[in-house]
Amino acid sequence: MKILVANLGSTSLKWRLFAFNGQQSEVLHKGGLERVTDYPSAINDCLGQLKEAGAIQDESELTAVGFKTVLAQTVSGCVELTDAVLQDMEGGNLIAPAHNPPYLTGIRLFAERMPQTPLVGLFETAFYQWIPETAKRYGVPHSWHQAGVRRWGFHGASHKFMAERSAELCGREDIAHRARQLYVDAGNSTVGDADFRVISCHLGGSSSVTGIRNGIAIGNSMGLSPQSGLPHNNRVGDLDAMAIPFMMQKKGLTLEHVIRDLCSEGGLKGVSGGYNDLRDIQSEANKGNEDAQLALDFFVAEVRRWIGAYYLELNGIDALVFTAGIGENQASMRTAICENLGNLGVYLDPEANESCRATEAVISHEDSPVKIMVIPTNEELVVAREVKRFLEKNS
Ligand code: ADP
């Protein structure tokens, strides 16, 4: 079985082709195109590269194309991307302007190009299907809640991979197995007596923190949209809702202006005075730019706030995990986030931390009660496996 996983950005198309032999998977091809202006040609190029590399002889060999879809109005989980689902996704365009429109464009073009091939989406919200009702709610009128104003949670594929891999690295095969079995039989499987509690920090261009008990998420720092929770590279993060009418009235901003400011001028870019890549912010801070230093400190404080929330909710943790561009590569940010947490059992090993760059590693002191780990994320594998299960279940 060959499954192509397509990652669609507003100007990029990245892909991985997986071949499955039973439960074993292998990446047959991996590639990407940047600065895409013509999506149909990009899809052609992608399929052409798969053939040139000998990964497929013909497009009909692709059993399905999988997508890490972000947000729909009512649909979650792993589903076939029918017209009805795409329409439901369209309802999320206003609140996920950087994420949903490119996916909708790309999916529709794949459907035209390969009408016989099933297109399946694993929504980023899927990992949060079992979070408690309290973690889904906002304090809004009932009619708002019924209209869909609720917390969803995102980065589900990445945090699910952290749930699996952290358990494997801690020798908890029972928990790892349970996490791998999601989303097929989450509620039903049982685990041993001992709790296994993890806080997973996905820190990248887009960032979120998730609490995980026994392989299943209990919540995520992002809420209704991927603009919430931690400050992102250029997206706002959590904000008092009254700031919006305040700015509309005070500065006469239109709704479009507000959306643009919150979704492309906010977050680390807003605080640092225009820098949205953490490497640039760091080099500015090193030169003495105080706004850049504040952006770094603010980011660390917000990550710690969410770690604190889940630490309390989980009544302690066994593992603290870092992943994604910043989490995997930025030792100084991991140091700042873990600083002075000895009372919580979190002790970083400075040498192990400094020497870890984008590789899987345990970076806690050997006596640290909490294991601190860096785990490179593998969202595409999570999508491919889920698409495979979806196809097998529905064949
Ligand atoms: P996205 O959410 O767009 O997938 P990434 O996970 O690639 O983003 O994270 C992007 C962020 O990670 C940037 O702020 C960047 O500074 C940081 N980053 C990515 N790669 C590196 C690296 N090799 N060294 C240091 N920082 C990195």
Give a structural overview.
There is one protein chain. This protein folds into two domains: 2-123, 2-Layer Sandwich (Nucleotidyltransferase, domain 5); 156-379, ATPase, nucleotide binding domain (Nucleotidyltransferase, domain 5, 2-Layer Sandwich), CATH 3.30.420.40. 40% of the residues lie in helices and 17% in strands. It contains 15 helices and twelve strands. The strands form two sheets. Strands 3-2-1-4-6-5 form a six-stranded mixed sheet, sandwiched between helices. Strands 9-8-7-10-12-11 form a six-stranded mixed sheet, sandwiched between helices. The two termini are 13 Å apart. The relative contact order is 0.11. Bound molecules: adenosine-5'-diphosphate (ADP). Adenosine-5'-diphosphate (ADP) is lined by residues 204-206, 233, 277-279, 324-326, 329-330.
Compose a concise summary of this entry:
This protein is α/β, with parallel strands linked by helices. The chain has 15 helices and 12 strands.
